Amino acid sequence: MAILDVRHLVIDIPTEDGAVHAVQDVSFSVQEGEFFGIVGESGSGKSVLVQSVMGLIPSAQSSGQVLFQGEDLLSLSSEALRQKRGRDISMIFQDPLSSLHPQYTIGWQIVEQIRAHERVTKQAAKARAIELLEKVRIPDAAARFDSYPHQFSGGMRQRVMIAMSLSLGPAMIIADEPTTALDSTVQAQILDLLGEMREDLGATVVMISHDLGILSRVADRVMVMYGGRKLEIGASENVLGNPAHPYTAGLLRSSSFNRAPGTPLIPIAGRPPSLLRPPAGCVFRDRCPNAMDICGEAPPLQKYSDGTESLCWLTTPPTEPAAPEFSEAEIVATPGNTIVEVEHLSVTFPQRRGEDKTVLSDISLEVRRGETLGLVGESGCGKTTLARAIAGLIPPSAGTIRFDEQDIAGLSDAEWRQMRRKVQVVFQDPFGSLNPKRRVGSIIGDPFRIHRVARGAERLARVQELMELVGLNPEHYNRFPSQFSGGQRQRIGIARAIALNPELVILDEPVSALDVSIQAQVLNLLDELQRELGLTYLFISHDLAVVRHVCDRIAVMDGGKIIELGDAATVSGNPQEAFTKRLLSAAPPEILKIVRERVLLSAEGSAL
Which CA distances in Å does 152 have to 141, 160, 176, 353? Predict the structure, then answer.
């Protein structure tokens, strides 16, 4: 029986530039007790779709039907819909820190939600809140009841959000990218927890994600969205193991966990369409490697024997485009060709109260010229602190760091200025590391200005060369960072980092916040630049699939120490430490391809 039945849903959002056609004629159903996944790139309409179910977009203009337990949510008054939220339908948002009020304890916030819907005493609500915190495995729940959100880790905050979502026993839980910013081990814990809640409480889970690996692990059925439309839907194993739509196949080709290590990823060409003016015919036509002349007309909804539905003219399996060709230039890293040597490094931070906190303890490793060395571990293990110490941004408390056999601890200011030309950093958040009030041309040109390398027309020419090198349009020199997509902003950061031909580039989670197709583009770009310019990378990530794909060697960190170090194939294929095995077990499994024939049953008119 369907708990949620969406019929011909259309959502338009008014803006100063016109109406954004965020969701266009989408129909699907979710069965009671099902784990239903929705996947697609940013801007595909996933979040707008589920937020409209919750009535969280007051300015939206909607048509169609959203039947929840037989009742049309779009026809309800604001007060009736408010009663539904939390009690019957709850939501887990992507960023728990911004979803939890920083000035109230987590216990108070759970109690406040319970008492807003039920007439219970504070004591009874508190007892239920503590029971829920115990259920989601918050250690010492009774004592942590009075803690504030900032006193929890990201994974613990997400557990609090799950406890809050369960506080009223809802029939359906909507999880919007609940694991995006979390380590792989914490991701696995949250997914297991959602699965347990579904089994124990009989709740239906609708989860949004751009990570196909995660959905392949937990979802019973998957719906693929693009450009505001439903392009494919069916059982998870069928949609992901034997995609019928070229867009789904493109997402899978872009995923590093689904490609052999060291091979180029195949990103989806181009960019998603503007939803202010959606294209005529198939919405994916301009990016599709299987596009035909007939794709200029509205595609039919193809229905297949395995239950898969695809909004496409194509009735045969999508063909795979050729992988990008990289230059043949290659720098071979050897043990005797070392660029960075770290010996017995320790970093300790003083605390206002109590003993000083040791973040790094007795770290020793070398970075070989021309290689990509991966640093992996859970949040708080010291990965970023180690990278910042190597970059000279944090002074070591003990030990030595040598760059090209020169101890960086004794460098003068003038020597540090020269060292900055050799070591550059690409940060995790491209928007946060770019000044929003400055044009990208001046941002990329900063290294030339600071080091007095080029001026005037020469600087402009070199900046435009860099923009072209990283795949940006040189004509966009005068645009601001806000006028670029997330992937383009990351390219701006890369262009700035390589401006002075550095010897070492430190990449701190460079693709963690990007869609899989954009991830593929950025990772391919980094590989090509390394081959062409002879760069050395220190690659920090919590995504083991990405690390296995791009790195030559992997260093595993835990508790401020390196516990395992070796070539990527050995560490990922035959780990020696229990912690490394736990990290690898949490990584998404490879999606098994289905080779059985799929029979077309019908093609129902046009869905446009």
Answer: 12, 9, 20, 19
Sequence-distant contacts of 263-271: CB under 8 A, at least 24 apart: 263/323, 264/323, 264/324, 264/326, 264/524, 264/527, 265/519, 265/520, 265/523, 265/524, 265/549, 266/320, 266/321, 266/323, 266/324, 266/520, 267/517, 267/518, 267/520, 267/521, 267/524, 268/517, 269/321, 271/485
Tokens 């294929």 locate to 573
Going by C-alpha positions, the residue among 155, 157, 137 that lies closest to residue 147 is 157
d(CA 9, CA 63): 6
Beta bridge partners of 538: 373, 506
Ordered alpha helix ranges (H), 391-454: 413-422, 440-444, 446-450
Q: Name the β-bridge partners of 65.
A: 7
pLDDT in tens, 556-606: 999 899 999 999 989 988 999 998 888 888 777 777 677 667 788 877 764
pLDDT at 606: 47
Q: What pLDDT is stored for residue 87 in this prediction? A: 85
Q: Say what the pLDDT of residue 365 is.
A: 93
The residue written with tokens 């990008």 in the block is 324
Helices 486-497 and 516-533: angle between axes, nearest 10 degrees = 20
Confirm if 512 and 552 have CB atoms less than 8 A apart: no
- How far is it, in rounded angstroms, from Cα 277 to Cα 266? 27
Residue 100 CB-half CA count within 13 A:
30
pLDDT given at position 92: 87
Q: Which residues of 10-20 are buried (b: 16+ CB within 10 A; e: fewer)?
A: bbbbeeeeeeb
Closest CA to 325 of 537, 524, 526: 524
The pLDDT value recorded for residue 326 is 61
CA atoms within 13 A on the CB side of 565: 12
- The pLDDT of residue 607 is 42
Q: CA–CA separation, 464 vs 381, rounded Å?
A: 39
Closest among 29, 31, 49 to 39, alpha carbons compared: 49
Q: Please tell me what DSSP assigns to residue 85.
A: B
Collapsing DSSP states into helix, strand and coil, what is residue 425?
strand
- Provide the token pair at 396: 């070591």
Query: Could you list the mean pLDDT of each consecutive 10-residue stretch along the chain, which spans 608 residues?
Result: 92 86 94 94 86 82 92 89 86 79 92 90 92 87 90 81 87 86 76 83 88 87 95 94 92 81 81 85 92 93 93 87 63 68 92 80 93 88 89 90 88 84 84 85 90 86 89 85 79 90 90 80 88 91 84 92 93 90 79 72 63
d(CA 85, CA 486): 32
If you search the block for the tokens 């300015």, which residue do you land on? 59
